[in-house]
Predict the 3D structure of the following.
Amino acid sequence: MFAINKDLFKQIYKLIKSYNNIVIARHIGPDPDAIGSQIALRDSIKLTFPNKNVYAIGAGVSRFKYLGSLDKIDVTTLEDSLLIVLDVPNFIRVDGIEDLKYSKIIKIDHHPKEDIVGDVDFTSNNYSSTAEMIAELILNSKLMMDTNVAESLFMGIVSDSERFLFRNTTVHTFEIVIRLLKDYQIDFLSLYDKLYEKGFNECKFEAYITDNMTITENGLGYLIIDNNEIEKLGLDSSAASVAINKFNFIRELYCWCFVTYDERNEIYKVNIRSRGPVVNEVAANYHGGGHAYASGARISKKDDIDKLINDLDKLCSDYLGKENE
Ligand code: AMP
């Protein structure tokens, strides 16, 4: 069990209480943890302080509409706001705050620390998800929770831990989830339909990846995904990010990565996952980062793709060497 930092939670509550305009932001290319955390915290603050203006900002993603709606506001009209940054460690990846005037930051994030430092800062790698951190905050402060808030947090936790399969899952994760389930009567089976229902085209995409992935003798799987394949199946640019989590627990793979070309931004986007080697330090050398076992990178020169693949293969080889010692 973690030591609960009640003093930190008091400081977060106090700062939220002192502002009338509150903007909650998160990373670009959001996942259910980022959006679920934003919506849960916004709705909890509104439940607690009905007269405050609280906005969850950033581009919406149609496939995650079931999590609730974000706020479309012109942030330039807001004076003296409190910025709450969730699930992202670096300013460059925060969505939608370029024109926002804010005087203080609260940061809540489970990624390794980078350049964002909150005036009140709740950053820790020990949580499965940002949603787990927000659940802990709400359950241990005067912020209020209801079934909707609990459901958004549950979906964030379940999604970022890949249904408690990822190595970021702890006993604490289960303790928090039990409280959400017990105290707020979440109908979790019906939420799984929203989280896991998929089209047959997504199954076909996974089959394309399975058929075409190269696997090295060190246990690295990699694939440079053909954009035509994504288009042909009627999928969008998030297809690789969704599919990457489906390749866990394959005996022949210790680490796997997909490369997709983002034509609009003229950059290669890389999704990296691992069930052994720590990959975020390699990702950091290629304009990336993330968690020990789930990272991403951005590559502008095609040659660097080969370099990254070689680095990851070397990582697998070193890992295997240590395992066999
Ligand atoms: P993804 O494969 O896009 O789901 O990303 C996996 C993890 O890596 C997430 O926690 C992201 O926040 C992080 N991540 C992805 N791309 C980058 C990047 N270019 N820089 C830093 N972190 C990243």
Notes: The chain has two domains: 6-195, 200-323. DSSP finds eleven helices and eleven strands in the chain. The first strand starts at residue 21 and ends at 25. The pocket of adenosine monophosphate is lined by residues 27, 111, 241, 244, 271, 287-291, 294-298 (CB under 6 Å).
